[in-house]
Fold each of these.
Amino acid sequence: MVLNEKLNPTSNPHLPFGDQRGAPFYGKDILSVKQFNRQDLAYIFEVAHEMREMVTRIGTFDLLKGKILASLFYEPSTRTSSSFTAAMERLGGSVIPINEVKYSSVSKGESLPDTVRTLECYADVIVLRHPEVGASAEAAKYARKPIINAGDGVGEHPTQALLDLFTIVEELGQVDGLTVTMLGDLKYGRTVHSLARLLSLYDVRLNYVSPEILRMPAEIIEEVDGKDIPQAEHRDLEAVLAETDVLYVTRVQKERFENLDDYDAVRGLYVIDAETMTRAKAEMIVMHPLPRVGEISMDVDDDPRAAYFRQMEYGLYIRMALLAMVLGKA
Ligand code: NCD
C-alpha cells in the first residue's frame, strides 16, 4: 500500500452498496479551512440541515451503522469530543475514545504516526486534537483513513469554524455584508485563525480587538488581505461595538503562555455584560467557542442575542455532516 494513499473510489473498489463514490469529501482529511470554497460550504450546510431534521424527527438513525470513529485527544475537550461522539452515535456508529492519552501507549513514548497507524486498524476515521501546530497534517501523511483536525495547538480548528459559520448563517440569514468583530486572545486562539480564513471567502468586514500582546498573527492578516477583505485592529471594543453584527468572544488561552505574568496582565481585560449589550445593535449575535472563563458575564445568557449555547447545538449537526461526508454517505 502506498504511503499517504487515502480511501478513495479507485483504491477501494469493494465499497458496500449505498456508498456514494462520487461524493466530494469521501475519504478526505479535514485539516484546515483552506481546503474549502463557498460551494463546499453550501453543501456541508445543506447536509447539516438534513442532519438536524433527522435528529429532530427520529433522534438516532443508521447511516453510519458499523462504522467506527477513533477519538484521539491529547488536549482537554468537552464540546468537541462529546459532540463528535454524539454525532457518531446518532448516526448509528460507534466510538473508540482515547481522551486521556496518559492511559494509552502515548505515555510509553509512542509516536503520533504509530498511534495513528494503530487506530486506523480498528477505526474508519480518526478525530485528532494535539498541542502541536501541523500535528493533524503530519498524522494524515501516515494514515490511509481520514483524519479530522479537532485543533492543532495554536494552528487551526476547522470543524469549529464550520460550525461557527453555520451558526452565523442560521442566526442572521447570510454572511455577505456582515461586520464580524473578534475579541480577546487572537494570537493563541485557534478558532479565530480558522474563522477569519473561512470568512474571507465572503464579503465581510473584520475587526480584531485584542491587547497588544494577543494580536491576530500577521500571517493570517496577510492571507485575508489577499482576498481584499477590509480588516481593522483595535484595543478598545467600544470603537467597533455599535457597528458589529457578530461579536465573537474568545478565552485568553492561559495554557499557551510561557510567562504567567503576561497572562495575568491581560486576563479579564474584556468582559461582555448586560451593560455592554445596551450599546450593541438590536439585531446582532454574540458567539463564543466556549469554555468561557469570565469574558461573558452570565447576565448576558438570557439576552436573545446570546448565541453561544445554540452554537454548540449547531456543532452536532455540522460534525454529523462531516462524518457522513468523509465516510462516503452524504
Ligand atoms: C476551543 C478550543 O479548544 O480551541 N474550544 C472548543 O473547541 N470549543 C476554544 C478554547 O479552548 O478556548
Note: The CA atoms of residues 244 and 262 lie 29 Å apart.
Amino acid sequence: MTVSKNAKAHESAHLHVAGEATFVDDIAPAQGTLHAALYLSEHAHARIVSIDVADVLASPGVHAVITADDIKGENHCGPILHDDPILADDLVQYVGQPVFAVIADSQLLARKAVKSARVEIEPLDAVFDVQQADEQHSWVLPPMHLQQGDTGSVLASTEQTLSGAFSVGGQEHFYLEGQIAHVAPKEDGCLHLWCSTQHPTEMQHLVAQCLQRDASQILVEMRRMGGGFGGKESQSALICCVAAIAADKLQRPVRLRLDRDDDMQLTGKRHGFDYQYQVAFNAAGKLQALQLKMLINSGYSADLSGPVATRAICHVDNAYQIEAVDVRAHCCKTNTQSNTAFRGFGGPQGAFATEYILDNIARETAQDALDVRKLNFYPQQGGQTPYGQPVEDNVIHQLVEQLEQSSDYRARREQIDQFNAGSSIIKKGLALTPVKFGISFNVVHYNQAGALVHVYTDGSVLVNHGGTEMGQGLHTKVAQVVSQELGIDLKRVRATATDTSKVANTSATAASTGSDLNGKAAQDAARQIKTRLIDFLSSKFAVSPASIRFEQNRVRADGFEWSFEEVIHLAYQARVQLWSDGFYKTPDLHWDKDKLRGSPFYYFAYGAVVSEVAVDTLTGEFKLLAADLLHDAGNSINPAIDKGQVEGAFIQGMGWLTSEQLCWDDSGRLSTHAPSTYKIPAVSDCPARFKVELFENQNVKDTILRSKAVGEPPLLLGFSVFFAIRDAIASVAGHTINPPLNAPATPESILKALEACRG
Ligand code: MTE
Ligand code: HPA
Ligand code: MOS
C-alpha cells in the first residue's frame, strides 16, 4: 500500500489516545451547577390523569421539578412538524417518553428522586405493528408514491414474475457519548449551551422558541461529539430544551446527561422497514418492472421521517436501471420511540429492497448473483433514475470489474462450492454487492455553508465553520483545505469548536456533506485572504499577481521570496484585513417534493465489496471470514480518514443486518436497552482478511479538491455480509430456494431460514 502525503492524522488523535479530548461532560461544572434527570413514561399510550411529585420535591438535594407548564413558548422540539412535545402534557405516546425533569445537586440525587413520583394514567390502545398501523391509516405523514413507466402492463406481459415480503429491523445509534447538554444562564435573558449535537443552529432556534427568546440570545458551542451517526441531528433537541428551561427558571447552570439505558429508551433509532413487492424480469435476469410498498416504522411522531422516506424512495434503484418503477412509502405511526436519521438516512433501507429482490432473481434464473447484478447496472452513459436525475458519473462497471479481479471472486466461488460439497455442518457463502449513493441534502436549501478564517499576525491560522466534529475527521479535512490554499503546514491551522455566534444559520452536519459544504466555504474564506495578500504584494513590490505562489510555508514572486510569516507581518503593518468569511451553496440542485422528481443530488458516490462468510447450520451462528472493499471517495482529501470511514461504516452496516436486534415487549417497552442485550459488532467480528481500498477517481463535479463525500455511502457495503449469509443458507438446497431470511440475520433468523430451505 502506498501512503499518500495527505494521509494526515485526525486533528485530535493525540488527545483521543491520551484521554485529553474534552467532551461536554468534561467541562468542569461552575459553582452552583445543578443536574437534571428525566421521568420516562412507563406506558406506551395513555392519558396522564395526575402527577404527584410531593415526594420527589421532598427528596434530598432536589431543587425543582420541571413540567410542561414551565415551558413559556411552544412545547415542541421537532425538526419539521410540531408533533414532538419536549415534556408530555396530558398524553404519553411511548414507553420512555419524558414527562418531567427533576433538578438536584447531583445526577445521582436527581435520578433517585425521579423514582418517588406517582403518575396516574388512563391507558389507551397502543399500536406497535406497522401492518396494523397501515391498515388503520395511522401515519405520521401522508403516503408517498413514485411512479415511472407502466409497471402494470410490464407485469402483465412479461416472461416471469415474482412476489413476496421481507423486512429489515431498526438500529440503535450506540454513539459512545450519550445525549448531553450543559446550559449556563448569562445576563439579560441570554444562555450559553454546550451540547453534543450535529445541529447547533437548530438547538439554538428550538431553545429560543421554547423560552420565547431571540435566537441572538442563545449561543450554542460544540467542540466534538463522541459519535452522532444521525442520532444527534434532531434528537439532541429535547435534551437541550429541558436543560435550558431548567437553567433559565433556576438561574443556575444545569447539566442533563442521560444514562445509557434511558438514552436507548428515550431516543429514536434507524427506521425498520417491512416490504411487499412484485417484479417482472426476463429469462436473462433483467429486472423490468418493480412494484414495491415500504411500510416504515416512524414511531410516534414525524421527526425526520419525511426526508428519510424520500431518500429511501430515491435509493430503491441503487446501481440499477429499472425501466418501470412503482414505489410507495407509508410512514406508519406506532407507539414507540420516534425514529430518526441514522447513517444513510433511509438510503440503505431503500437499496436493500432491490438487492434482496435481485438476489432472489439470481436463484430464480439459476445464475450467480453477481452476473444478475452486472446485467442490471445503469449503463455506462445515459442512465436515468426513476425520479428523473441523469446518472452522469457512473463508475460502477469499472469499479466492480476491478474488485472482481482483485478479490478473485470467480475462483473463490468455485472453492466455496467445493468446500460446501464436502462440509455438512459448516456452509460458506459469498456475495459481491455494489453501492450508488446520492450526495446532497434532499431538501435543497440545506445545501449551504459558511466559514470564518483568521490569520493571526504570527502566521498561525484559526478556522471556524458550520460543521460539527463527531469523529469523522471533518475538522481535519477542512484544516487541510485551508493549509493547501495558503500553502502552509497543516500544524499551523487549527479548527475551533462550532459556535453559533461565529457562523450563523448553519445546516446539520449530515447527509455526508460536511466536508463538501464546509470545505468549500473555508476555501472561499482562505482564497479571499490570499487574494488580498496577492493584491498587497503586487502593488508594494511591483510584481505580477500571476507570478505569486503560496507553497511550503513560503511566498514566491518573480525575484522575491518571503516566509509566510513575513508576508503576514508586512500585510498587517500595511493594514490589510487578515481574516475573512466564506460561503458556499451547492449548484444545480432542484427537487419537487410533491411529485418526487428532479435532481436532488449533486453527484453519486460508488463502492462495492466482496464478503465471504461461514455459517454453522446447527447453531445459526456465522463468522465473516473475509471482506474486500473498494470505495470511491473521488480524489480523497485524506485517504487515512476516508479508509477509516469506509471500514467503520461497513462494520456498522454489518451490525445492523446481523447482530443488532431491537426487541419490544408486549407492553411496548424496549427490552434491548443496554449493551447486555443489544449486540453491536466488536473488534473480534472484523474479518481476518479485511482489505479496504479507495477507487482511483476524481469527482467529475467541481467538489472540494474533486473529492467525494464518504461518511454514509459505505454503510451500504454491509449488505454483502447479509447476502453472503443468505448464499450459505441457500447452499443447503442447492441454491434452488430463496431463503426467507429477514434482517437482522440473528442465529434464530438464520436457523428459521435454514429450516425452510431444508423443507
Ligand atoms: N463517523 C464517526 N466516527 N462518527 C459519526 O458519528 N456519522 C456519520 C458519518 N461518519 C459519524 C461518522 C454520519 S451519519 C454522517 S451524515 C457523516 O459522518 C457526517 O459527517 P460528514 O458530512 O462530515 O461526513
Ligand atoms: N440527510 C440527512 N439529513 C437530512 C437530509 C438528508 O438527506 N435531508 C434533510 N435532512
Ligand atoms: Mo447522517 S444520518 O446524515 O447524520
Note: Residues 127-170+269-378 form a domain with the Aldehyde Oxidoreductase; domain 4 fold (CATH 3.30.365.10).
